[in-house]
Design brief:
The structure holds two protein chains of two kinds. Chain A has helices at about 20-30, 45-50, 60-85, 105-125, 160-170; strands at about 5-15, 35-40, 150-155, 175-184. Chain A is α+β, with helices and mostly antiparallel strands. Chain A folds into two domains: about 5-55 and about 130-185, no CATH class; about 60-125, no CATH class. By secondary structure, chain B is mainly alpha-helical. Chain B has a single domain (about 55-160, about 170-470), classed as Formate dehydrogenase/DMSO reductase domain (Formate dehydrogenase/DMSO reductase fold, Up-down Bundle). Helices cover about 65% and strands about 0% of the residues of chain B. Chain B has 19 helices and four strands. Chain B is globular, with a radius of gyration of 26 Å. The chains are: A alpha+beta, B mainly alpha. At the A-B interface, helix 1, strand 2, helix 2, helix 3 and helix 4 of A face helix 2, helix 7, helix 9, helix 17 and helix 18 of B.
Chain lengths: ~180, ~500
């Protein structure tokens, strides 16, 4: 008998193929679950609809990140070249009309800031890095990055019921249904 | 170009009288021999998990020695003695270091082209080669960065390139293409690194999940960031990948355009032309693809990746080399034409010097390797013979180095003041350092093959037919690929008023 207290994370069910996972996901979605996820070794197209998910909001972050980069590039060049240290090289003027020569810098910084926003925005939205997770306690879950397809329904979900959820997953075509527990 | 289609046999043969048959095109498969998800995982992760073959060591040890002697040794000698140990002389101040810089930065362009532009244009064949090409990009940019950093003369002052307030209260000249270059190359390196790393996270998780508890699991686990592969992660991940591809596409075109501005915005005859940006970009893609083939074909046969990197991939890359090589050839001839058509005296003299001056051999090498040699790729026989493909790609690698040599070295030694004219010769330190960067490039690439998944496992799985969420439905209702409609019925549908 284990001495540590354990907390139920939820049910993990395996599916045979991407098609089976897709059909299973539609059933779980229709049952009204919110805290659940489909695990697959590669992104399955159309899965967002099958799970009733909305489009990622990442592009909005990136728009503002990119705009910040554009503004930074302009300010950096304009303030240093025109305002605080007017540099006249090759008889090129140091005023607002110099801006055209700053376009490459503005462009590159737009891309640079957007790229960093993609990276950190993505990590924020995925809630990573998170090195441990209750699902890693499941032995079969390791196959999800190889050739396994899984659905995990969390016990935190308001609709979760030990018997009914299991029956639902079985009905949806799930196999090797496992109750995943985390050590508290 | 991406798919080689063949007409469905059923459509052209057999008894077709009285029936209208609509033929469909069938795509050649990207992964051969019906390999499964697990086979792909085993094969790619196996490279990292198993001991390396003897040939890996035979390549790695000399490469590492060349890198140490050439880059570490050469640069230590340069810094401790002075930048004069390079062959750069008055007038030809750019010499080999900038030739090498443009050469390496150009090679870096294929990686981002494969991962970004081919992604946006939905060329799924890129999935088998994009990881290695991106790695190549990063290593090539590392090699490229060495040269301008040391070319500034006092490398410990290289931080003056960055817009940081300094004691002299002097700022960089933001109107200069050389500063644009600093921003372009550093942005390119950073974005390529982010693209490469984010693309690798799911595959690092695959290696983590296969490893037994220990150091390997720990390290790959940290770099996999705790990836779980849930659709709630994939959904954001796919969006991030699309955004990075969309950002990298103009970026990759801008980087070599800006490198070409270093030349084109000057008033030097032979450099001051508007054709430079597209010509440089086409050349970069051309040289980059040749380098991808040069390193991927041996890697493919050493690690038995024939089912993942198929002849189709090599053929497609050969065709891109042919197309871009022809664009480059057009640019060579067009800049020549414009020089004579424009009637600018010094421009004409510069081109005469290029072709008939003391560096004529470089011009011939460039023309032969970049324009004539790739024309062999018009023939399918040549695209299918790996020896020929490798030989031509080697020629292209050499030719692209000569192209930059021609642009820089045939122009600078003879400029406005004849008293300044001098034949430019590289010093032994120049040669040692350049060969050292080749060693460094190979060393980094071999380490990449050893420690990281060299093919994008997740994306390759995604190209398999059974990865489709509706694959089982299609199996239940197989689509024969041919729609048979009786001829009279067809006519009836078309002309409802016809009398039967």
């Amino acid at each position: 008998m284990s001495t540590t207290a354990k907390r139920v994370y939820g049910y993990l069910a395996e599916f045979d193929s991407a098609s089976a996972l897709y059909k299973g996901a539609e059933k779980v979605r229709d049952a009204g679950f919110k805290k659940w996820d489909c695990y697959s070794p590669y992104p399955i197209h159309g899965m967002d609809d099958a799970m009733g998910m909305k489009r990622s909001i990442l592009p909005y972050f990136v728009f503002f990140g990119g705009s910040a980069g554009l503004l930074t590039g302009f300010s950096l060049a304009f303030v240093t070249q025109v305002l605080i240290y007017p540099t006249v090289v090759q008889a090129k003027p140091a005023n607002i009309f110099t801006t055209a020569a700053f376009f490459p810098i503005m462009f590159e910084l737009t891309i640079l800031f957007s790229g960093f926003t993609v990276l950190f925005g993505l990590l924020g939205l995925m809630q990573l890095p998170r090195l441990n997770h209750p699902l890693f306690a499941s032995r079969q879950f390791a196959r999800s990055t190889d050739d396994g397809f899984f659905i995990a329904v969390e016990a935190r979900d308001a609709n979760f019921n030990p018997e009914e959820t299991k029956a639902l997953l079985e009905d949806a075509g799930g196999k090797n249904i496992e109750l995943v527990q985390e050590e508290d | 170009m991406a798919q080689q289609a063949k007409t469905n046999q059923a459509a052209v043969s057999g008894d077709t009288q009285g029936e209208v048959i609509l033929p469909v095109m069938e795509r050649e498969k990207l992964i051969l021999n019906g390999r499964s998800y697990n086979w792909i995982t085993e094969r790619i992760c196996g490279i990292v998990e198993k001991p390396q073959p003897l040939i890996w060591w035979l390549l790695f040890i000399p490469s590492a020695i060349i890198a140490l002697v050439g880059v570490v040794g050469g640069l230590t000698y340069l810094v401790s003695t002075g930048v004069g140990v390079w062959g750069n002389t008055n007038r030809t101040m750019w010499g080999w270091p900038i030739v090498n810089f443009v050469f390496w930065i150009g090679i870096g362009h294929a990686g981002t082209l494969i991962s970004a532009i081919l992604f946006l244009t939905r060329q799924n064949w890129r999935t088998s080669i994009n990881r290695a090409a991106e790695a190549m990009t990063i290593f090539a940019v590392c090699c490229a960065g060495i040269f301008p950093a040391f070319h500034v003369g006092r490398v410990w002052m290289a931080w003056f390139l960055a817009p940081i307030p300094n004691a002299n209260a002097i700022w960089q000249n933001f109107k200069s293409p050389l500063l644009w270059d600093v921003f372009a190359v550093s942005t390119y390196f950073t974005i390529s690194l982010i693209f490469w790393y984010l693309g690798m996270v799911p595959d690092l998780a695959t290696i983590r999940d296969r490893a037994r508890p220990g150091l390997r699991k720990f390290l790959y686990g940290i770099f996999a960031l705790g990836w779980r592969g849930g659709n709630r992660q994939w959904s954001h991940y796919e969006m991030a990948y699309l955004l990075l591809a969309a950002l990298s596409t103009p970026l990759v075109l801008s980087v070599h355009s800006i490198v070409s501005f270093d030349f084109a915005t000057s008033t030097v005859p032979g450099w001051h032309t508007t054709i430079f940006p597209p010509y440089f970009v086409a050349g970069a893609i051309f040289g980059g693809f040749a380098m991808v083939i040069t390193i991927m074909v041996p890697a493919r046969s050493i690690y038995g990746l024939h089912d993942v990197i198929t002849m189709k991939h090599i053929e497609n890359m050969s065709k891109i080399i042919l197309a871009t090589g022809t664009i480059v050839g057009y640019a060579y001839i067009m800049e020549l034409f414009v020089a004579f058509y424009g009637g600018a005296k010094y421009e004409i003299e510069a081109f005469k010097l290029r072709i008939m001056g003391p560096y004529w051999w470089a011009y011939v090498a460039m023309m032969f390797c970049n324009v004539i040699a790739p024309q062999a790729f018009w023939f399918k026989k040549c695209r299918e013979n790996l020896w020929i493909v490798m030989f031509i790609c080697m020629l292209v690698n050499i030719g692209m180095w000569f192209e930059r040599f021609v642009i820089i070295v045939t122009t600078l030694p003879r400029m406005w003041i004849p008293a300044d004219w001098k034949y430019y010769e590289a010093s032994p330190v120049d040669i040692i350092t350049f060969v050292g960067t080749i060693g460094m490039f190979l060393t980094l690439f071999l380490l990449f093959l050893r420690f990281l998944p060299c093919v994008n496992i997740a994306e390759v799985k995604w190209t398999l037919l059974e990865s489709d969420a509706h694959f089982d439905d299609k199996k239940a209702h197989p689509d024969k690929g041919v729609d048979k409609v009786s001829a009279y019925q067809f006519e009836l549908d078309e002309n409802p008023n016809v009398e039967c």
